[in-house]
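Weekly modeling sync, notes
Attendees: S.R. (lead), two postdocs, one rotation student

Agenda item 3: backlog of single-chain predictions. S.R. asked that every request posted to the team notebook include the full sequence so nobody has to chase files. The rotation student volunteered to paste the first one in as an example of the format we agreed on. Action items at the bottom.

Example entry:
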Amino acid sequence: MASDILIVTNGTKESFPAIEQGAWLAKTLGLPIALLGVTEWLDPAAIDAVHPLEAAFEKAVGLFEAQGAAYRLEVRNGSAEKIVPVEARKSDCIVALSPLGRPHLQRLVAGRSIRAFIEAIAQPVLYAPETRLPVKKILISVGGLGYDINAEHIAMRVAKGCGAEAALLHIIPPIGFDYPTAKEMNEHWQTLTETDTPVGRSLRASLENAKAAGLAASVKVRRGNVIEEILAETREGNYDLLCMGSSYSAHSLRQMVSANVTAEIMARAHCPVMTARFGG
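Predicted structure, as returned to the notebook:
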């Protein structure tokens, strides 16, 4: 169980969804909040100018106090990519982030910040490109290999805490290998939970865990490109939160040569995404 929710802002309006979604998550899980303000641009000539974090902190504190949350405020100067992973390692937290509102040219040169964050932060990450409240529908992406078990566990706690419906999603990718398990999955993909394949058994166990927790849960199975199908289901099902394991849970040749699914989803999704690494 996490000890707190570490919410990150650099004072831009683009980073405020992390404050709203992070405050909701803290309330849902009954956790205190640590609001980390990162000052990335300091102008020595603007001594009397309003600090970029002042407005964000004022709105955040008003929100925290309105919901009766326990919170603390911290400010650091420097690059968010360097500061946030260091601060995250200080506690067993869940880190809430949003886009940081950086100039378009900087994003083109350095890439999206979320890619660097999920690589450097070992703790669970909630990425909110926009605010989605209330959370009524949660999609849990499960691969069937066990690497997503931590993300699944957190997602079910969240669903139970906010009374949301939960759907378990598995994607069957195009498979070029002709072996029995792959053939069975492709032939019986619409009834995958009834098969004796590893994925079928895993989905049944996840569904049983959800129902044991008192959740309204269902299973969704799609075939095709993993990234495109996850995004399509998220969009078509109008989900408020997507939960998935992290590519950094595994260290294999397949991970090294394949697309970072988690990073691609976070960069393109229009709803909040929570990811957690496998912890053993």
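Discussion: group reviewed the output briefly. The mean pLDDT is 87.
Action items: rotation student to repeat for the remaining queue; S.R. to check formatting next week.
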